[in-house]
Amino acid sequence: MHRITRSLLLIGLVTLLAACSQGTQNLRLSPQPPATEPVTEGDRDIALQVIDNRSQSDLGILENPNRSLIRLVAAQDLAYTVQLAAAEGLRGYGFTPTLWDSAREPRLAIGIETLSHDVAVGVPYELTTRITLDAVVVAGGERFTSQAQTTRTRQRVLPPNAKANAEAIDAAITEALGRLLNAEMAAFIANGG
């Protein structure tokens, strides 16, 4: 009987340690497109690409109560995820995003310069998301450049799971895209530079 109790206690301890030593949290991102309204009567094609210029692929870290760290990583390609949301925002303006062609005009290149989501342990937990996006539009032989930065902070009583972390990052991406793909940029594209 003593052996069975000891074995069960050991199995329980191993299970608890395995749960605490989670190494990564895979986040499935799906940011909403920014709210946009038509600025052109007809559909105008625009070549679009999004490039992830960050030096590392991790999205951030989650700190556990025991001070161990969990890596936060995207479950899919971050640039493609941002490109889908940006394309929908451009469609809202009346543009038709097409495959990238560096010789085509108009064309829009968006760079993801920073994206970090860090969760600090505490009462409550603090979630801080930072994102910086750059854009270069070429239309009518002219260039339009823009940058958008967003920092969002949330608090939670319990440690956030993958869904809560993904929602926080999605909201920051949507906000940054809304600032980047603004009316001034849309007018530049619509007027051909």
Structure description:
This protein is α/β, with parallel strands linked by helices and 193 residues long. Helix content is 32%, strand content 37%. Strands 1, 2, 3, 4, 5, 6, 7 and 8 form an eight-stranded mixed beta sheet that branches. A hairpin with a 5-residue loop joins strand 3 and strand 4 (69-74). Helix 2 packs across helix 3 (162-180). The N and C termini lie far apart (82 Å).
* Total domain count: 1
Residue share in helix: 25-40%
Determine the CATH topology.
Double Stranded RNA Binding Domain
CATH class: Alpha Beta
**Low-pLDDT residue spans:** 8-21
- Number of H- or I-type helical stretches: 4
Task: Please name the CATH architecture.
Answer: 2-Layer Sandwich
Q: What is the 3D shape? A: elongated
Instruction: Report the order of strands and helices.
Output: HEEEEHEEEEHH
Profile the largest sheet. 8 strands, mixed
Please state the average pLDDT score: 90
Radius of gyration, in Å, reads 22 Å
Tell me what portion of residues adopts beta-strand conformation: 35-45%
User: By CATH's scheme, which homologous superfamily applies?
Assistant: Lipoprotein like domain
Instruction: Please give the number of β-strands.
Output: 8
- Rounded to the nearest angstrom, the distance between the terminal CA atoms is 82 Å
Q: What structural class results from the helix and strand content?
A: alpha/beta
